[in-house]
Structure formats: C-alpha cells, structure tokens
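To: structure subgroup
Subject: Chain for Friday's discussion

All,

I'm putting the inputs and outputs inline so they're searchable in the archive.
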Amino acid sequence: MEIEQLLTPERTRCVAPGLSKKRALEMISELASEQCPDLPRHELFESLMAREKMGSTGIGKGIALPHGRLSRITKPVAVMLKCDEPIPFDAIDHQPVDLLFGLFVPENECQEHLSTLAEVARKLSQKDLCRALRKADDNHLLYELVTE
C-alpha cells in the first residue's frame, strides 16, 4: 500500500524537542485518534506499547516504525513524526530516533501489515529522503516529502 493512502497531512508533524519514547507513542496515538474518532486514543497507545514490549521498533539510523494491530479498524492508518531532537528509543543500533512512522493495521490483515511495513522501511532507507525529511521545518513539507 502506498504511503499517501495511509497518511494525511493532519497526521504528519514536526515536533519540538523534549519528547520521550513514551510521549512520542502517545502523540502518535493522539494524532491517529483525532483524525479517526472511532479509535480511542488509549487503545491505540496500548497497541503500540504491547508491540514495543516484544522488542523495540527502532530499526536503526534514527528511524522507528512503531505499529499496532487493532480489531476496530478496517484499513491501515499512519502517523509521521519528525523530532527536532532525537530521542532514546532502544533501537537495534542503539542510536536515538528522530523519524517515527506510526502504523495501525487491522488485526486480521497480517500479510498487508507486513507488506506495508516493508514498503515504509524501504522508502525510509533512502538516504537522500531521510536527509530531506530531517531538514523539513513544517508539517506540509514533511508530508510532501514522505509521500512523493
């Protein structure tokens, strides 16, 4: 599934310094809930935390792909955060994270979930794109860059 089918400008944010891992996951949950009112924020957050307990979703090079499965949703929902200051995230390379792509998927869509995560990881493995994302200073530019 293409990123522009998952993400909206309203769920794409440049974030000021001072976040923790927990607060970043809360923010991802809040943004998804604001745009999808039938998804309670606490359920979104709990799904992300349940996945993080199995192991960090920090994939290295300053990137994290926090994700959760929910029975209440029928299509994937994404949130993109770019942090002005990298945050500790227990990533596999032990480096802090400044690009977070949160994803919520239907509980019974395992293959689509894996395919979507792979597509996002592939896109965010592009060094030039990540460099541009890190330089983005407003939400709209961040959205345009990640969806082009």
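Points worth raising on Friday:
The chain has one domain: 3-147.
The mean pLDDT is 90.

D.
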